[in-house]
Amino acid sequence: MLKRVVVTGASSGIGAATVRRFAELGWQTVAVARREDRLRALAEETGAHVIVCDVTDEEQVSRLAAEVAASGGATALVNNAGGALGADSVEHSSNDDWRAMFEVNVIGLRSVTAALLPVLREGARKTGWASILNLTSTAGLDAYPGGGGYNAAKFAAHAVTSALRLELAGEPIRVMELAPGLVHTEEFTLNRLRGDAEAAAKPYLDVTPLTADDVARVLVGAFQQPPYVNQDLIVLRPVAQSSVFHTHRGPLAPKV
Ligand SMILES: NC(=O)c1ccc[n+]([C@@H]2O[C@H](COP(=O)([O-])OP(=O)(O)OC[C@H]3O[C@@H](n4cnc5c(N)ncnc54)[C@H](OP(=O)(O)O)[C@@H]3O)[C@@H](O)[C@H]2O)c1
């Protein structure tokens, strides 16, 4: 059975780890992002087919879909490209940051999904099934101070995922969502805080966060279930983080 997955945002963090994990399990992978050098390095390691694409650019997304179709099709899509910009209050944040977050986390996800749906349907015709998984966040389930723009974008991505699942009812295409909490990836918080390395290190101090590999393992696990099993929403947090508001710092120990 053809197993070919398109992973957006594959040049770093969770996306790169996801491509590695799928490749280890014998899947063909298509790695998508804007930075070609990083994708090429990942391809050397995993055999991924590289497609350079900005998911916020509709023409590039159309070309992405055409290249996926021409190079072997797809039976799975992981919409992972995304991120946060700024940690300012609703009152003091910038509309440009909000627009940029909405563009990549919501519109980009929609464009890529819409462009690839015909390709996934073709995959489902050949193999019986296809799958879509959207990477949202616990920030898309609970708002927090300073999270407004990112919360709004990830709440929207969560809503889009639910609407899509309803719209595809009757087709052999599962629509899944993975919402991680605190994950320590190299670039996510650094980008959010515009390169301030000291501030970006703080959320991960005295706590064991998830790694990109932890997320990838669980994510790929959802694709290893029988194809009629749809894990609608997987919420994944480190044990030390019992909610967005409760992160235990310091060692964990049984209560006396
Ligand atoms: N880290 C966390 O704590 C955390 C928690 C929950 C959810 N998430 C979500 O998980 C996903 C991955 O996060 P991460 O921590 O792995 O972040 P990351 O390391 O910053 O990776 C983000 C990826 O998205 C790509 N990307 C960004 N804008 C793009 C665009 N316009 N077109 C195509 N690709 C684009 C980036 O590649 P290029 O720059 O090369 O394009 C990069 O590969 C994101 O959706 C994030 O919101 C992260």
UniProtKB/TrEMBL annotation:
It comes from the Bacteria. PROSITE patterns: ADH_SHORT. Pfam families: adh_short. The keyword Oxidoreductase applies. GO terms for molecular function: oxidoreductase activity, acting on the CH-OH group of donors, NAD or NADP as acceptor. Keywords: Oxidoreductase. InterPro entries: NAD(P)-bd_dom_sf, Sc_DH/Rdtase_CS, SDR_fam. Belongs to the short-chain dehydrogenases/reductases (SDR) family. This is SDR family NAD(P)-dependent oxidoreductase. It comes from Leucobacter insecticola.
